[in-house]
Amino acid sequence: MATSTHVVMGQNPPTEAEPKYGGFTRFEIELEFVQSLANPYFLNHLASQKLLSEPTFVAYLAYLQYWTRPPYVKYLNYPGPTLKNLKLLQEERFRQEIISPELVQALAAEGMKASVDWHKDEGL
């Protein structure tokens, strides 16, 4: 996470007019990363790599809270689970417990149920 050091030190959220990293803007990279937080299996992977106990990474997760506010929230494809998990990741207990396969399965099942319910409500 090359950007985590300078963003934690008080940088503002990215803008559209910025340098590219590997052909992508910081905005695009952070958008892709924050959206991946909707996936409980990815959260489990982060925990298994011990990233969720690294102070710098935890600070990066706190920095990503800007995605909860306009204008950034409108760019999220799955705002419900993305923002829910981003909020949960602010809690140390959740960062420790997401290593549990049972919690991962429960979150995945909850997401599937929410998706099915949404489609029923929409008449699809």
From TrEMBL:
Gene3D superfamilies attached to this UniProt entry: Mediator of RNA polymerase II, submodule Med31 (Soh1)
Family: Belongs to the Mediator complex subunit 31 family.
Subcellular location(s) per record: Nucleus
Function: Component of the Mediator complex, a coactivator involved in the regulated transcription of nearly all RNA polymerase II-dependent genes. Mediator functions as a bridge to convey information from gene-specific regulatory proteins to the basal RNA polymerase II transcription machinery. Mediator is recruited to promoters by direct interactions with regulatory proteins and serves as a scaffold for the assembly of a functional preinitiation complex with RNA polymerase II and the general transcription factors.
PANTHER family: MEDIATOR OF RNA POLYMERASE II TRANSCRIPTION SUBUNIT 31
Any coiled-coil regions, as ranges: none
Annotated keywords: Activator, Nucleus, Transcription, Transcription regulation
Subunit structure: Component of the Mediator complex.
Record-linked InterPro entries: Med31_sf, Mediator_Med31
Main location, first listed in the record: nucleus
GO cellular component: mediator complex
GO terms, molecular function: transcription coregulator activity
Domain of life: Eukaryota
GO biological process terms held by the UniProt record: regulation of DNA-templated transcription
Protein's name according to its UniProt entry: Mediator of RNA polymerase II transcription subunit 31
